[in-house]
């Protein structure tokens, strides 16, 4: 249930709905960034090769 709430949050704050055109692509994640077992980096790349979003993840 919490996941649905967070998905709604990201949609409202991270996407301009009127200008958003979804494309197929893949989400890439790299774990153990700089030797830190609590860090990861990710990005979404569409099928045209454009990186649409990049982000860092840190477990505290």
Polypeptide structure, described:
The structure is a single chain. With 60 residues, the chain is an alpha+beta fold. Helix content is 22%, strand content 38%. The chain is built from one helix and three strands. It has one helix at 2-14, and strands at 25-31, 39-46, 51-58. The chain has a three-stranded antiparallel sheet, with no helix packed on it.
Kindly summarize this structure in a few lines.
The protein has 60 residues and is of the alpha+beta class. The protein has one helix spanning 2-14; strands spanning 25-31, 39-46, 51-58.
The coarse overall form would be elongated
Low-pLDDT sequence parts: 1-7, 9-14
Q: How many DSSP helices?
A: 1
State the secondary-structure class. Answer: alpha+beta
- In which range does the helix fraction lie? 10-25%
Structure keywords:
three-stranded antiparallel sheet; elongated; 60 residues; alpha+beta; single chain
SSE map:
Layout: H1 2-14, E1 25-31, E2 39-46, E3 51-58
Antiparallel strand pairs: 1-2, 2-3
């Amino acid at each position: 249930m919490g996941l649905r709430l967070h998905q709604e949050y990201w949609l409202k704050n991270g996407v301009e709905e009127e200008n958003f055109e979804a494309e197929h692509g893949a989400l890439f994640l790299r774990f153990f960034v700089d030797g830190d077992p609590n860090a990861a980096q990710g990005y979404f790349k569409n099928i045209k090769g454009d990186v649409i979003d990049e982000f860092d993840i840190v477990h505290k």
